[in-house]
Amino acid sequence: MEYRAITGENFYLIEMKNTCKFILENKIEDDLKNLLKINNILETVSESNFSKKFNTINKRLKSLTDNLKKQIIDTDLASARFVNLYSILCNERFILEFLEEVVKEKYDNYDYYIKESNFSNYIETKSEQSKVIESWTVEGKKKMLVKVKNFLTEGGFLERTSEGYKIIKPIVDSSVIDEIKENGNKKILNIMFY
Questions:
Q1: Through-space distance between the first and last CA atoms of the chain, rounded to whole angstroms
Q2: CA 194/CA 192 separation, integer angstroms
Q3: What gap in Å lies between CA 80 and CA 100, rounded to an integer?
Q4: How far apart are the C-alpha atoms of 169 and 189, rounded to whole Å?
Q5: What's the whole-number mean pLDDT along residues 97-105?
């Protein structure tokens, strides 16, 4: 998995749920893009907005088994967020490594708070380790850190506080965990359960 600047992507939980529901109810296998557009499943206002959302969601869908697609629709909100974040982490190395190298490490050391300096240190370290990240503009790096904060907050792993962010562990339906253990990416699951 390579590093990618995903500054234009969002969490898209509602769109993922709507797309999964549409796929499962209509047994869609081919021509997904066209069918989503015709039925306005992604609720977009322009062609470019549709293309951006579709490309992001289609990439994430490939990480989900049919069972996880069903669970993201039927499960509780915390578990649906977990499944959606899992699909993001399956595709986005930068966010996955932040969860592993910063959140997990702090949690293992009984430090449950992330400060702005932790985000800054992470991007500096990654810039030293990767020519791809080093080549990102200053503004691009800032936007990527905003995405890390947003995705991990919306995914249920961070909570905004006056001092920064508090690390929290989401409570997830055991059937979601079992499905990922049996048919998904166990390495990513292990990182998510620091």
A1: 21
A2: 6
A3: 21
A4: 13
A5: 97
| Cα dihedral sign, 5-130-1-103 | negative
Nearest to 102 by CA among 160, 137, 152: 152
State pTM to two decimals: 0.94
Q: pLDDT tens for residues 28-51? A: 778 899 999 999 999 998 999 999
Which residue did the predictor score with more confidence, 30 or 88?
Answer: 88
| DSSP letter string, 70-96 | HHHHHS-HHHHHHHHHHHHHTT-HHHH
Alpha-carbon distances, residue 151 vs 50, 90, 98 (angstroms)? 21, 13, 11
